[in-house]
Design a protein that fits this description.
The protein has 124 residues and is an alpha/beta fold. The protein has one domain: Rossmann fold. The chain is 49% helix and 20% strand. It has a five-stranded parallel beta sheet, with helices on both faces. Helix 4 links the parallel strand 4 and strand 5.
Length: 124
């Protein structure tokens, strides 16, 4: 069975490109464009990995990640950000929830993204 990856990014081009990268590398992936749609889709898609942008309108990716952690504790989290200021927020959340939260800067090379995703999925 293919590993399921849910991609959440309000930038459609980024989300669709990441979706293509994961599908081309053997994952079952889907892309949505808001945190609200991400939570709704996560509940039915049951991803093993949530790949989520931090800065989005209405609800940010950290809030989505917190809800997903609570509802789907088996789901791994890989956050993306183009803003250095988000790094401290993400680290604080990881400390508060006592759960690893991997953070990558955008843009990032597909090889790095796939390696980090694989490592998260394979970690116990």
């Amino acid at each position: 069975m293919k590993q399921r990856v849910l991609i959440v990014d309000d930038d459609h081009l980024v989300a669709d490109t990441l979706n293509w990268i994961f599908r081309a590398n053997g994952y079952e992936s889907e892309a949505v464009y808001s945190a609200a749609d991400g939570l709704e889709r996560a509940r039915t898609f049951d991803p093993v990995l949530l790949l989520c942008d931090i800065t989005m309108p209405e609800q940010n990716g950290l809030e989505l990640a917190e809800t997903v952690q609570h509802e789907m504790p088996q789901c791994k989290l890989l956050m993306l950000t183009a803003y250095a200021g988000n790094i401290a927020k993400a680290e604080q959340q990881a400390t508060r929830t006592r759960r690893p939260l991997k953070l990558l800067s955008k843009p990032c090379r597909p090889e790095l993204l796939l390696r980090e995703a694989f490592n998260l999925i394979e970690s116990a």
